[in-house]
Amino acid sequence: MTTLHFSGFPRVGAFRELKFAQEKYWRKEAGEQELLDVAKGLREKNWKHQAAAAADFVAVADFTFYDHILDLQVATGAIPARFGFDSQNLTLEQYFQLARGNKDQFAIEMTKWFDTNYHYLVPEFHADTEFKANAAHYVQQLQEAKALGLNAKPTIVGPLTFLWVGKEKGQAAFNRLDLLPKLLPVYVDILTALAEAGAEWIQIDEPALAVDLPQEWLDAYETAYAALSQADAKILLSTYFGSVAAHAGRLKNLPVDGIHIDLVRAPEQLDAFVDYGKVLSAGVIDGRNIWRANLEQVLAVLEPLKAKLGERLWISSSCSLLHTPYDLSVEEKLKADKPDLYSWLAFTLQKTDELRVLKTALNQGREAVAADLAASRAAAGSRAASTEIHRADVAERLADLPADADRRKSPFAERIKAQQAWLNLPALPTTTIGSFPQTTEIRQARAAFKKGELSAADYEAAMKKEIALVVEEQEKLDIDVLVHGEAERNDMVEYFGELLSGFAFTQYGWVQSYGSRCVKPPIIFGDVSRPNAMTVAWSTYAQSLTKRPMKGMLTGPVTILQWSFVRNDIPRATVCKQIALALNDEVLDLEKAGIKVIQIDEPAIREGLPLKRADWDAYLAWASEAFRLSSTGCEDSTQIHTHMCYSEFNDILPAIAAMDADVITIETSRSDMELLTAFGDFKYPNDIGPGVYDIHSPRVPTEAEIEHLLRKAAEVVPVERLWVNPDCGLKTRGWKETVEQLQAMMNVTRKLRQEWAN
């Protein structure tokens, strides 16, 4: 019989129940027990859904109150020593302080999990880091599932990936791989605790195998898994996000009991593993996108594999279903408005059912699920024949672009003179990244407008009132280049997708970005164009309220692409360039309306990199071209900004420079300006605004902290090219802390302007 197992499920609940319970707890409106009860209920629902899909193993240890890598830091005793917490007796309040910071310590740095849109908290490793096992969180989940009568498989990230995704900290230079001998006994203790609690199988995730690991890291797998095999449990070594075929020989010789491979991202790697003599888990349902699988095509792969492997064949999703929305069946509006599109989709619960169908077909024959296979076949045929997807005018516009369509009229050295002539900004010009607090009043007005309870005129008046407040506060703070605050925007991608053709939206399609932050990605199902202006009216209204320059705010083409669920029937590069041309229409309309500073945010450029370096150049070429296409045709005097966050830039700086933005703002405060060093070493040619405080924490930075960061920045970037700004947008913050944070930023800026002018 073929075994069906799960690697992970969405944590936040079908309706973001965990998010609301977390935030209620953080506001001290609920006690710890209420939060614990909500979490337990969500775990049980997840397990019951998996069991209903005939899972032989439900996933445990995947649930977290904030981040699974933070949980692993706790489980291994590797929480940052600077907090002064005891990992063996960590309270829930202290756990959240690690993630969110406190009055004494900034939060653990956050970055993207490989090439997904999920953020994890980066482990801080020191040469003298000591590890100590604390498996209580994992064991508790295992015991809860067993109490429900379920067969459970704990899933934890493996030791080499854990070290790989961390950072070396401290004064002394060292290689964090050198910590492996100290870390392995702690992993053995964790696995032993799980085995003693009844785990027959334990899944150990090593997605780092899908990147270009140095040879010494690859060689360490033999040592690592020889040690882990001491635990009295069977180990399923899980890889995903790319091909590991190059390491097949090494992996097949490891002392593990099974291997999981991602056959969605890398179907070609199957040939390298078909002769594996142990359990082979085939990840055949996409854990990262929302398109319904063609189950007959999947079975065409699995049936020969079943004939060869017999009971050694396991099936699962390609990776954890964490990255997909919870349940398509609640999307009644989408079903009514776009029934064909609805029939092409599968969210987490639908994917569990697809796996049930596959398991049944493999074990009982296709006739046992004939109706399910017919429905899958009909959906695939409907999508292939749809006339909603392709538009000749969009294709022709892209095909007819001249060779130099993506180039500005003059080089930066000439453009910046034209921009400075009219901007007339002081040294260390100040700005913000775009958004201001999304207050309860804003959210209530937007919700009422969407429900038809508020007229369009009343909604516009409400938003204009919020914009006026934002402009007034920025003028009081004496910020140089203002923003309108984005009160009208629910999300930096969803807002634009709602106004572009080729996009569709869900009501409840939330996925976790980090902690309690959830996003509702648009679905790009067809060719993209811009029917009407999207931001011009809001920006021109804001400009009418002030004589200071107003910055128009757009989300860039690569970020819209990366933060959406993207159609998989044409190349992603083509989709991205379609979006770029749609945005270019908006940029030129802003320019005509007198908005001559325009920010095109691209926080997702780095995360879009393929995991294999051999594929980087092609991606960076079309990503940079798409960004340039979005501002093509602008006058030299129009200043184009971009913003990037959560990224290591060292290895892609030539591509960032090739984007040719006049000003780039970047997230740097959590890394203590470490990220800026690469720009200095590279001699980045254009203006830079390194973030001087962390907006993801409610704490107000001291002026000394901001001054420290600005002085460090000035050691790397010439003062005449240095801007001052927060790390990111301010929508998640409250007004009081926002004003206090920005006031501290401005106080330091004025001090250093005076000092450096002399």
Automatic annotation (TrEMBL):
Binding site for L-methionine: 433-435, 486, 601
Cofactor: Zn(2+)
Residues noted as binding Zn(2+) 1 in the record, renumbered to the chain: 643, 645, 667, 728
Residues annotated as domain Cobalamin-independent methionine synthase MetE C-terminal/archaeal: 428-750
Reactions performed catalytically: 5-methyltetrahydropteroyltri-L-glutamate + L-homocysteine = tetrahydropteroyltri-L-glutamate + L-methionine
Binding site for 5-methyltetrahydropteroyltri-L-glutamate: 16-19, 112, 117, 517-518, 563, 607
Cofactor note (record): Binds 1 zinc ion per subunit. Binds 2 Zn(2+) ions per subunit.
Pathway assigned to this chain's UniProt record: Amino-acid biosynthesis; L-methionine biosynthesis via de novo pathway; L-methionine from L-homocysteine (MetE route): step 1/1
Residue span(s) of domain Cobalamin-independent methionine synthase MetE N-terminal: 5-308
Residues the record marks as active site: 696
SUPFAM superfamilies (UniProt xref): UROD/MetE-like
InterPro entries registered for this protein in UniProt: Cbl-indep_Met_Synth_N (IPR013215), Cobalamin-indep_Met_synthase (IPR006276), Met_Synth_C/arc (IPR002629), UROD/MetE-like_sf (IPR038071)
A GO biological-process term: methylation
Enzyme category, top tier: transferase
GO molecular function terms listed in the Swiss-Prot or TrEMBL record: 5-methyltetrahydropteroyltriglutamate-homocysteine S-methyltransferase activity; zinc ion binding
Keywords: Amino-acid biosynthesis, Metal-binding, Methionine biosynthesis, Methyltransferase, Repeat, Transferase, Zinc
Enzyme Commission numbers on file: 2.1.1.14
Binding site for Zn(2+): 643, 645, 667, 728
Binding, L-homocysteine: 433-435, 486, 601
Family to which this protein belongs: Belongs to the vitamin-B12 independent methionine synthase family.
Summary of the function given for this chain in its UniProt record: Catalyzes the transfer of a methyl group from 5-methyltetrahydrofolate to homocysteine resulting in methionine formation.
UniProt protein name: 5-methyltetrahydropteroyltriglutamate--homocysteine methyltransferase
Chain's gene name: metE_2
